[in-house]
Fold each of these.
Amino acid sequence: MKFLIINGPNLNLLGKREPEIYGSDSLAEIESWVKDSLENNDHQIEWFQSNHEGEIIDIIHKAINHVDGIVINPGAYTHYSYAIRDAISSAAIPTIEVHLSDINNRENFRQISVIKDVCVRQILGLRKTGYLKALKLLINLNKTD
Ligand code: DQA
């Protein structure tokens, strides 16, 4: 199966960026940890990071008919990007929203996710384990289809 993992703005700074909130792993370290932790490495998993809303929308469009599931951490776009929300609902690919931190226990503006309702699941506050959990859920979802 083929999966796409999208990380939005400022997530390229993971490891250096507010480690007390987001952990001390870089995005590359999270990627290799997730790869090593998956029991089955036959799946094709593409990791993509961008600081630009349009690039995130473009990669969701390109995924149509090509990937079996998307894991997305849209960073701050989570809280206000109706354009990313529309891209996810238009693509109609099972998508799981992941956040390293528990956005429901942070500032008021972070407690709103405009993409939540178009995702099959929201995983909060599990740091890197959230990505692994999301992938496993998508793999199982596709198995039962
Ligand atoms: C984040 C939470 C967002 O509020 C924030 O803007 C991020 C990271 C998380 O993974 O916890 O960039 O998505």
Amino acid sequence: MIASKFCSADWIKNIIKEDENAPFMENGNDFINDEKIEEILAKGRNPQKKKVREIIQKSLDIERLEPDETAALLNVQDLDLWQEIFQAAGEVKTRVYDNRIVTFAPLYLSNFCVNSCLYCAFRKENTKEVRRRLTLDEARKETEALVSLGHKRLIVVYGEHPLSDIDYIVDTIRTIYEIKIKPVRNNPAPAVRGDAVGGGISNGLKARASSNQIRRVNLNAAPMDIERLRLLKKAGIGTYQIFQETYHHSTYRKVHPAGIKANYTWRLYALHRAQEVGIDDVAIGVLFGLYDWRFEVMGLLYHAIDLEKYFGVGPHTISFPRLEPAANTPFIQQTKYRVCDEDFKKLIAVIRLSVPYTGMILTARESPEIRRGAIPLGITQTDASTRIGIGAYSDRYTEQEAEKQQFLLGDTRSLDEVIREFASNGYITSFCTAGYRCGRTGKCIMDLLKQGKERWFCKLNAVLTFKEYLLDFADKKTQRVGEEVIKEEIKQIESNLPEVLPRFRQYLKRIENGKRDLYF
Ligand code: SAM
Ligand code: SF4
């Protein structure tokens, strides 16, 4: 009812402003040339071992690859050579990002949508979907629930609809940033509302001490015009993430038969427009399973190159979700391009080598087993304790209630379980958002990453934020393995950054004494 009342044709008509794409297009063409990509992929067939090893070495030297080089890697057949690619991908990740994994949680605010994406349960034709838009009070409760689990970063997600237009997005982002949960140190059962989150999500954990809050709100929402983007920038968003879904023009038309999203170039240049207003951390992605995965990896690379061309910096992160089953969404069973687990590993490794300094996000769409196998190939960020229903963190409902979700999740473990597993494998979970708050964003952070410098800032801040988590949210087992990781990190800081050690130790002490949010 609400949906049809507000979904006026005029609103839809006025969203797209083609002239805002014009500065980035060449003779009316966008930067994805389907024939050229097919041609480069065909030319790259049966690459010589020697050539592949030279390409791998270029990535190990932390240089972005050219399209023909990425095409050669995508064409490798030799299984031993793939093992070398996998190993190099892990090595590149360590050189640029060390053993850090950043965690976040998605927060779905509204699932009203005017679009018709064949693969998504939120599409307007899906009348079985229960539609809901959170009130600001409900958004507050969701945020409290997430903060009380230990999260510091969210990605907020919205359908495209007049009910979730820019004013609502800005209001919800402001509401999220406002939530602060006061420290209740050494109190095993705090009086924070978010502690009472429903069915299984708290996993028996108690948030003890927390001058905690969400420190960075990233956004996944439909492409916007310049006017709306300016308001977003003012609201203080972190990264703006938009997936092209598929770079293949005719497939794009097929899977987006109607609605605003049917316009390929409006979406393709959304992040160019965002960069233009100064939103300098932008994130791209493909929904793997709509078209040939090798073509899509090439599309991601061309997207990164075009952003570099205009703004001197490529995407902050790349995501590579695979199509997941969604309620009442038969398209998913029909597509012939589903990506198998082995190819999934290959595409992750090739992306890692193609853009060595770009963050890579693996989501809880994937099962714990797949995540275990994929993380060593170069992943830098992942979500945990994820729920993708509207109101799902504070409502009581079973984990996979299909009609309230966009699709079904593969990993529903708690944040603490995920962090414990990372720590057992020598990874440190970072909740650091300092870089952004010190202006280390966009080109600046990419330059530091390319020079291998950000790694050290990040190590210090990762330890400080991990310490906060262990003190405030971790259960005993996680605290034990976590402290072992911290000991190792301190050894490395001692030998590599002796000049900052006194200040670092002083910060750790202050955190133990209840201070929060200290960073370098
Ligand atoms: N409505 C906005 C848009 O389409 O850009 C943002 C929200 S949409 C809910 C976020 C992403 O979910 C989409 O970009 C798409 O890649 C992903 N998605 C949709 N259906 C999916 C499915 N069945 N399996 C996995 N991911 C899916
Ligand atoms: Fe709407 Fe986004 Fe889902 Fe498409 S993917 S139906 S635009 S929510």
Amino acid sequence: MNDIVRIRGQKRLNGTISINGSKNSVVALIPASLLAKDVVTFTNVPHIEDVNSLLTTLSYLNVKTKFDGQTLTIDSSKISNKPLIGEEIKKVRASYYFMGALLALFNEVVIREPGGCSIGERPIDLHISGFEKMNVEVNYQDHIYTCKTPHLIGQTVVLKKVSVGATINLMIAMALADGVSIIENAAREPEIIDVANLINHMGGCVKGAGTSTIIVVGASKLRGCSYRVIPDRIETGTYAIIGAALGDEVFIENCNTNHCLALIYILKKIGVNLTVYDDVLIIKKSTNLTSINVETNPYPEFPTDLQQPLTTLLTQANGISIIKENIYAKRTAHVIELNKMGANIEVYDNNIIIKGPTLLKGCQVSGKDLRGGASLVLAALLAEGESYLHGFRHIKRGYDNIVNKLNKLGADISFIKKGDNDVAENNNG
Ligand code: UD1
């Protein structure tokens, strides 16, 4: 696998970029589609490693899939329940959605603890206590959850903390539970509305998604349908941030700007030259960016998934910026790498303090997680000279075709072929 890219920095960017379907939606929509035990066809599906990993799990469960262009057809009419304890489960955080789906279909699931990015502690206690409230007995041993129920009972679950994963997982289980369920203090992300819409398209009944109270009326059976995945708001935000740093005129198309309002507000406030339409963002050359104080919080506030790319952009702003990371306090692995490149960033508790502007210099850096990797792509694009970015596999988990998309805008990014590795290993400059 090509895991290293070389980036020659300081190229201005121009042109159009098209946004793909949402990663965080599709990784929930795929397990949710199993509830139909029928054929579900998704359009606008991104080609990312997380989707490939989920398709491997589907094949293991005897579910047929066909992924053609951006259309994914899932036929789960012959699905069988098997323990999900293989390596694929560890690769994707969202594997936990198989808990809700398989409990709803078979009243039983055996599943390994989910993996995903290493960005600090990521418990799933809220998912588990919600299932327990719905009449599920859960045992945990050697990183494996065994969950069993005589039948799922609709219940009111009050989440102690706002959680995207717990909200979606419970909603999936509740779709086929006996009676009416309510989720209080639900997360309100657009991806939650997307999963609720899918369940409703399959003949289910979910009301209130997008608010903090979701009501689910359990159905006895659901059916297949066709469904279009919403645009990826984090991919949109990443390219908007890259455009703000280096764009002369960058058009971001096929997005939903209504899902990106917190970022748009921040970019405007620091002086980015931005024009906003419903499904297009236009970023023109932006100079003299100013510092800002920002906090990450659940939607509709500024998302933690854009904290890392924004950190890199703020190395170019005049003055001291502070980003307070309220969701994942330890999501700061990118800071060490950015400082290697010449940034002036300090971390105190969950505060990331960025002194700018600084000239970044190309060197060897290593992406440790998906969005941290994206922040280093931007740093290398900004840097003087050449950078070698290791850990590209993390970026492929969530960004469809990022190298080609950026090169089309005028960036200079290439995969390091075998034999060039020596250059990459030895170039510490
Ligand atoms: C989802 C997104 C991820 C994003 C995150 C926050 C997917 C596949 N991933 O992750 O990209 O960064 O939302 O927007 O959609 N928590 C608990 N107990 C739980 C569950 C969560 O304490 O049972 C905590 C977490 O540690 C975190 C906070 O709640 O501090 C929010 O987590 P959550 O919204 O659940 O994140 P994920 O769904 O895992």
